[in-house]
């Protein structure tokens, strides 16, 4: 018996997740139970499935090794004023797309299929340096885990 | 059956015609030859234009020959011959500007039919080696000479231990831009194209342009992003629109091969060019803002390969739209990126793969939205100062009437009517949401400034509206929705004499209106109002029509 991993998620907390399928990555954020969100992504019209289909991936999803990575950002974001927390989460999501995209292991060897076209904020309560630190840490950790 | 191989003809003259026609402009051809000088580690490059005696500096096709003189490594006899080979086989040093061995011939023949070379190496000057496209047939024939103009030029200019002169002659037979136009473009482009070479600390490159009968021009380096002037933070509420903003300086990996370095990407947002019209701006700021040359031709990405610009203001497949004038980016790549970025033979063109374009587009997304904020901020700052030069200059201007009311009854009626006008103005301004007593501060003093000229988008259909202030007197509100404002006034700087003259006329019109309403006491005020309103409507309609057919005068089309 092999252990498949444990996910700890909770409704109402700020989380960033990454789904990895073959050479594709999908980055998203949620305040819902993460598996609920993931299930939605994998429905026939879900955004992850649609993004893959638009890139020519037509095989059934069951044929692939799919990995889910979940990061709890709640402690980081709850330090901010309440009205700015959600915007800060979106800011991290957008910056993660940029930072991951610049990296050889995440943006070149793999392709990011999610987008922040409608949600990217111009700024947030997070300072530039905090934003860089958070997203760099995320990228470092994800890179390490993907290579395991 | 074994594969049969048979040799076929390559007609030299046709090949030379073809490589001359790959799309060089005069300036890009000259710069391609300068690339060879830089590859040869030249520290000084001179471009010499010789013009036709009977033509003016700005006449088309007035260049008879062009020479590029350098003090690089120089070439011996065999190297000179090889340099004129088509597809010369050479080993290029790492990160060289050269690539396929076509540049000299291709660029040279695009300028003129004859390419001649003379070089000096180890203090020994070579023969003159030339090829004349006009005399070529099937065979590619090189001529070797021991005398001529170029030998004399070498004696004059190749005074160091090494260097090379490339001479392109017969240019007058080709339809080309005037020497003036080519030199103007070179002045603009050389400083940007070779900015890294011109500004490097160790042995900076110097480039001098010479032309018959004109003073020499020394090219100065120009950082197209003006990084030294940049601020790093942007706040849309406090930005003064006087400095560019460095929005991004990142590295983007483009290959899984760890030997291929990342691309360097920088993105800068500039203040809109219009901000130079801001009254009160210092002459230094105005001059500095002018050097940014914010215009369509300079928007987009400037792409450098091995520190040499290869793409000027590229929109990268439409990432930068036609109206995104204030955004500039710089991408730096090296020879290692040639295959990934599909750099072509001219080293001017490339094809960036979709996945890299997609990532660059993401990087630019927020800066593009911030550019909209900058435009809005600029507009806000300019609007705040509209009319200010007139108001500052005319603080003491007093309305005059040659026929004021003489008797006490007439004077009392005039006072009553003025109070009524002031009351109505107050009510109107309040209803329009505009401050009732707009008072600004006179620069350098604490004396409140009465705004005789104001701009408003609440005026209605007439070009202007008169207003009366109970203590300060008459003012005029100019309609920013009227076509005369959009066509004429908005195109004139706030401190332009023509604009202040127009503001003066409109203020005088408002004075005339107020005085007519207050001083013609033998007529009913409401009737005078109707007449004046009719006058203003007719005037405004007709000036609107005039604007419609004269838009081109002020560049509004």
Largest sheet data of chain B: 9 strands, mixed
Secondary structure: number of strands of chain A = 4
| End-to-end distance of chain A | 19 Å
Largest interface: pair, residues per side: A-B, 17 and 19 residues
Chain-averaged pLDDT of chain B: 89
Largest sheet of chain A: 4 strands, mixed
Number of helices of chain A: 6
Assembly type of the chains comes to heterodimer
Number of helices of chain B: 15
Helical proportion of chain B?
A: 25-40%
Helix content of chain A: 40-55%
Strand content of chain B: 15-25%
What is the compact description of this entry?
The complex is a heterodimer of chains A (148) and B (557). Chain A is built from six helices and four strands, in the order E-E-H-H-E-H-H-H-E-H. Chain A has 148 residues and is α+β, with helices and mostly antiparallel strands.
What does this structure look like?
The complex is a heterodimer of chains A (148) and B (557). Chain A contains six helices and four strands, in the order ββααβαααβα. Chain A is an alpha+beta fold and 148 residues long. Chain A has a four-stranded mixed β-sheet with strand order 3-1-2-4. The model of chain A has no long low-confidence stretch (mean pLDDT 93). In chain B, a hairpin with a 2-residue loop joins strand 3 (114-121) and strand 4. In chain B, helix 1 packs across helix 4 (103-111). The longest helix of chain B is centred in the middle third of the chain and has 31 residues, at 354-384. The relative contact order of chain B is 0.08. The A-B interface holds A 94, 97-98, 101-104, 107-109, 111, 115-117, 120, 122, 128 and B 233, 250-256, 258, 262, 355, 359, 362-363, 365-366, 369-370, 373.
Quick tags:
heterodimer, A: 148 residues, alpha+beta, 6 helices, 16% strand, globular, B: 557 residues, nine-stranded mixed sheet, five-stranded mixed sheet, 15 helices, 20% strand
